[in-house]
Amino acid sequence: MPDDSALIPAAAASVADVALSGLLQNPKTLPAKLFYDEAGCRLFTQITELPEYYLTRTERGLLETVGPHVAGSLPSPVALIEFGASDEAKAEFLLQARDAAGDPAVRTYVPIDIAATALERMHLRLRRARPYLQVYPQAVDFMSMLALPASVSDISRLGFFPGSTIGNLDPPDARDFLQRARWALGMQSRFLVGVDLRKDPTILLPAYDDAAGVTAAFNLNLLVRLNREAGADFELSSFVHRAVWNDAESRIEMHLVSQCGQSVKLGGHTIRFAQGETIHTENSYKYAPEHFAALAQDAGWHSAEMWTDEARLFSLHLLEPRRGP
After folding, report:
1. Which pLDDT belongs to residue 325?
2. What residues contact residue 169 under an 8 Å CB cut-off, 6+ apart?
């Protein structure tokens, strides 16, 4: 799971079309961007507060220490560009940074997210809380090519991609995203990326299959959404949530497992399931620090610094554009 709602789908494609693009394949899939309807966002907020879900609290602990240092170390003023900014909760750790004169280091904030309504609410909150801050919301898919506002072209730029959302991208897509971010941010930028670390599956699996069943409800809510918004007729009691560790791919996988042979109608199509057949709903890749550094290197970045907690659960990488071959 990404640690935010950065993957909400663009309105240009209907929920039915997005779903059918995966359900008509073999094996069947649903894109993680369908998780975040109103109920999904509410359930995910509950997940981030669960004792098993270490990601949010661990990253915030790191950001509390590292964030002001990173933002304050760049020449002031700084433009903070956050990819997948559904709210400003984590950006606040960077917005608190002060420059050598004791003034706010970050004077411009560019939150990028497909959820236009959430961006507008954030803008209003920040206008009240930080009236000095210039905020330029960008309601676009951060996975597409993107041009930043001209107002940030001549000042220090700090990219920010928290929550280990990078782990929800297959490695080739992650590399492509990092390349596009390097192009957008420019050669004088820095990029702070949250990366969940590879670790014992006995720690990983409960974070995606908690004892209270909140993650299961989050996963099954995909089917609730398809019934409501795509006219599907999924019988929820016929599917169960499953989280598995794929060691060869170094990823957690989430699936919805059909408990019986059945047929489901959606968008004029009949989709047949065998007993035990799954819908693969999400991947969450876990990286060793050196493996993420190599991925960033391939995308034109150099991992200048890396921080992790004492238990080595989570990491923050500060990337700099790589110069030369």
Report:
1. 59
2. 177, 285
pLDDT value at position 6? 43
Which two structure tokens, joined as six digits, stand for 232?
A: 């599907």
Strand segments (E) across the chain? 28-29, 78-83, 106-112, 134-135, 156-161, 190-196, 239-246, 251-258, 262-266, 269-273, 278-285, 301-308, 314-321
Three-class DSSP category at 59: helix
Statement: residue 115 has pLDDT above 90: no
Looking at every residue in the chain, the average pLDDT score rounds to 92
**Token pair recorded at residue 217:** 């409800």
- Do the beta carbons of residue 164 and residue 90 sit within 8 Å? no
Separation between Cα atoms, residue 84 and residue 218, nearest integer Å: 20
Sign of the four-CA dihedral 239, 35, 244, 312: negative
Lookup result for tokens 């907020």: 45
Q: pLDDT category, 101, cuts 50, 70, 90?
A: very high
Could you tell me which residue, 33 or 54, shows the higher pLDDT?
A: 54
Q: Residue written as tokens 């992650």?
A: 174
